[in-house]
Amino acid sequence: MKNQALKISIAHLYPELLNLYGDIGNIITLKKRCEWRSIEVNFEEIHVKDEIKEHDLYFIGGGQDKQQEEVADILYSHKDFLSKERDKGAVFLGICGGYQLFGHYYQPHDKEKLKGINLMDAYTIAGKKRFIGNVTAKTDFLNPKTIVGFENHSGLTYLQGDTKPLAYVTTGNGNNGTDKTEGARFKNVFGTYLHGSFLPKNPHFADYLIELALEKRYGEKIKLLPLNDKIEIDTHNSLINKAY
Ligand code: GLN
User: Fold this and answer.
1) Which of 147, 140, 138, 109 minimizes the C-alpha distance to 125?
2) Is the pTM of the predicted complex or chain greater than 0.85?
3) Whether residue 18 has its Cβ less than 6 Å from ligand 1
């Protein structure tokens, strides 16, 4: 039996600028895991000149400081719309540079502070050291609990208020290399420093996001049918606590 006649709309924000280290793999994973279950995907790339329409799930990838500077002001111009989307239960996933812009600001080295869109109560300041390497972190809501990926950032992100960590690192640095947190969640807004890309190696989290997006669209919990994830989970397991 398939997840018949279900639909989901996904927006990829600024792929021409924020799409570092194969972050497009996250979009491919979300689309494929829906299509394999006969869930119709309405997919839209949003470029800097485009209006942003209503979607169930918004994705934004990572980028160097320069690309973040090119995106920050235009993203900020959509902040009120995106906050309303967040409050309606839309799902957001931001990777690294995109994640940093979900907070109040990102302060690069010796440059103008970049305004964030305040989807979560967090802020980022460029650190002296660049964190580059494999990351394993433990969540308290996924099965398996682990998430794995690759980090490459100098930004140090600090969470405040009701914005909670996505996970706690067991290998690697995560948000800032000191408080052991990795990523963040507020409502259905998720951020992570994990590239690699992230979702292909964490199919359980991809499905978690798809189920949240379906719940936002249909107003009820919809359990996804299981897929044969042997290859994905073997890959995931091979990366758990892989040396930094
Ligand atoms: N430029 C940001 C930093 O260095 C984000 C990097 C990234 O997206 N990988 O922290």
Assistant:
1) 109
2) yes
3) no
C-alpha span between 201 and 236 (Å, rounded) = 5
- Spatial contact of 86 and 120, defined as CB atoms under 8 Å apart: no
pLDDT one-digit tens code per residue, 6-27: 999 999 999 999 998 889 999 9
Pocket of ligand 1 contains residue 192 by CB under 6 Å: no
Question: What is the tens place of the pLDDT at every residue in 180-219?
Answer: 999 999 999 999 999 989 999 999 999 999 999 999 999 9
Centroid of ligand 1 to alpha carbon of 108 (angstroms) = 9
Residues in the chain: 244
The CA angle 181-185-190, to the nearest 5 degrees, is 105
Q: Whose CA is nearest to atom 4 of ligand 1?
A: 153
- Residue with CA at minimum distance from ligand 1 atom 5: 97
Q: Which residues of 204-234 are buried (b: 16+ CB within 10 A; e: fewer)?
A: bbbbbbbebbbbbbeeeebebeeeeeeebee
- For the packed helices 24-35 and 203-218, what is the interaxial angle rounded to 10 degrees? 70
